[in-house]
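PROTOCOL LOG
Step 1. Enter all chains and additional molecules of the complex.
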Amino acid sequence: MDDRTSTDLSRLLEAVSPSEADAAWATFVEKHTRLILHVARSLGGDHDAAMDRYTYVLERLEDDDYRRLREYAPDGRTRFTTWLVVVVRRLCLDHYRSRYGRPRGTGGEEARRTRRTLTDHLEGHVDIARLASSAPNPEHELLAWDMRSRLAGALADLPPRDRVLLALKFEDGRSARAIADIMAFPTPFHVYRRLNRLLAQLRDRLEATGVDKPGPVTPNATHGSPSVQ
Amino acid sequence: MSGQNASSEHLSPAHVAAYVDRALSTEARRIVELHLADCEECRQEVAEVTSLVRRSRHRGWSYIMWPAAAAAAILVLAVLPSRVDERQGQALRTGADEGVPAITVVRPATGDSLPLDGIDFIWRSFAPDAQYNVRLTTAEGSEVWRTSTRDTSAAPPPNVGLVPGRTYFWYVDALLPDGNSATTGIRRFTVGP
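Step 2. Run joint prediction.
Step 3. Record the structure below.
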């Protein structure tokens, strides 16, 4: 937080009279209106919707003698504006949920996630997408479950940073550019390079658990030793 | 993440902001990532906040409005380095500065380590009546300070909050009354302890 922001916030939070607080609040609003509007608009909707959110955010920030702003603890490295973006975004989501409920259900999300393609990138050790969609055969389901368990085990052994990388790519479907921004990789190329290494590592681990080599899954494979050709 | 169970509760605003700003210690970052690996909601939040913050900061770069004619402004925007994306010592320049005349830098030299109280940028005059626009960014490309001057030197004020030990980048672009321009190119320095 730069000195001026720090001073502005201190003046607001330490105001001893209502008039002093009003003046400090006006300064704060003026200084951060662009940021708050930026976040309010990012959630979509028309101008009125964004302005509703903006008003709601200001009211909530003002609540209980600026309780939310008092929660900010400068550490010398985190920007106040970044923290404010997080708080404003959460308030905007609260506003949305209070009006419309949760943005969307997660019922279809789980099914979609089980069909995502981490295993496709493991060069066909197992095609979970195909297995999961051929649900009528219980043996296939069992095989898919077994392979998911093996994969989950291999993933659990990875460092947290690598697991986040894989989740962003294969669960959330984010681009390499977005992942580079989120995880501070120098370029998208570095993201791909790390992903390639991780996938190779996962292939090795799957092989070590009994998956011999890439190939089509044999329908009659038995639980515990899925056969590949 | 004091007072928080990394695996079951969501990240606090402070932790999300610190993660986005790369302000966490190695251990704290590991704990946050342990949570992120299993929490789609927090990953979504981190991704959106990262995007909002980056967009906001990058857009700040384009708020360069000299009181010159619109045509001149358009030309300047065309030759300004459109973006700096420098991390972990690897520089990428995506702006079109090739072929743009160079401004000679007097100091600091690229790679210099400068004391916190002795950071100033000096360059040779490129032409009479040139307007110089100075930018200072973090290694991540976020702008921390900028100024416009007709002088051939500039120094960031103390409240910019540069951090000892960190690497920063700076450059100067010159705008001439006839619409031509020049640049120092991006320069790097480190704030000494």
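Step 4. Note key features.
Chain B touches chain A at residues 13-14, 16-18, 20-23, 29-31, 33-34, 36-38, 40, 43-56, 85-88, 90, 92, 140, 158-161, 163 (CB under 8 Å).
Residues 114 and 191 of chain B are 5 Å apart (CA to CA).
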